[in-house]
Amino acid sequence: MDAFTDLVRSYRERLLRFLLTRCATYADAEDALQDTLINAYRYLHSYDARWRFSTWLYRIAINNAARLQSPEVVELGELRDEESDPLLQCIGASDSENLWVTARRLLNDDVYAAMWLRYSEDMSVNDISLALDRSVSWTKVNLLRGRRALDAGMNGGSKESEAYG
Amino acid sequence: MDKLAKRLREDADKIEVSVSDELDQRITASLRGVTPEGHAGARRERAKPLGFWWASSLTGIAAAAAVIVIINLQQAEEAPQATPTDVVAAVPVIDLQAETAALTGPLQQELENLQADIRKAEEKVKKDIGL
User: Fold this and answer.
1) Are residues A59 and A21 located together in one domain of the fold?
2) Which domain holds residue A149?
3) For residue range A62-111, what is the model confidence (pLDDT) as tens digits?
4) pTM here?
5) Same domain, yes or no, for A73 and A129?
6) Are residues A10 and A48 in the same domain?
7) Which of A5, A38, A90 lies nearest to residue B15, judging by beta carbons?
8) What does each C-alpha distance from B47 to A42, B43, B58 come to in angstroms?
9) Which residues in chain A are contacts of B27 at CB distance < 8 A?
10) ipTM exceeds 0.90, yes or no
């Protein structure tokens, strides 16, 4: 158990940062992180060494975050309280133009996750498709569409109608 | 790295998070209460078929040995009862003779009749030729 704890120590903050962008509250993100590490430890035997360990962890984390997103939370997504939004809390008032806030607004969950894994974690397209349980083609196409949507968002939002998600 | 990728990377780094001591303790405590399913489960999965194989093999061998022993014991007990001598002795000789006489009696009588007929024919022939 101690070896596992040491192994995942370096991943905890990265996972938490990702989960903050997927959960409604900071507490939910912490719960999702805790569940992710517990599931990873419990089902360590199912880990396929052909995968990167981080890919496997992210896949568990994405599944846990999805479970925490109750239908009520999804329906009230547009009414998200900015004061309790964990992403906004962690960005701070000085960085209101953070591109991940824009990405969350423009992209759906899967495309957002693909973008995060590609540009924040430097994952390959193959690893992203494994983590999201999607095809490589889907991943390539949606990374491209996500980039276009964000490019449009960065350029004044005139093309937000083209946003994919 | 293009401009967008660089910006996304920088903005991700600006999201400041830290795992609090309280969360760290919570995770550690949770992990201590969890038993990995893989190792115990895999051992059980490996041990069960192996044990089952051995048990079925031994059961089969024991059953075959028991059948062999039972057959041998039965043969040893039945052996004195099945000698041909006893079978012959068990059949009354007199009955066999009576049966033989009953079966051969008519034929003997027929033979005697035929021999008598032949003698009569010889005498008649001798009389005809004047002997």
Assistant:
1) yes
2) 97-165
3) 988 888 775 555 554 444 566 667 777 777 655 567 888 888 888 988 99
4) 0.60
5) no
6) yes
7) A90
8) 21, 6, 16
9) 12, 33-34, 37-38
10) no
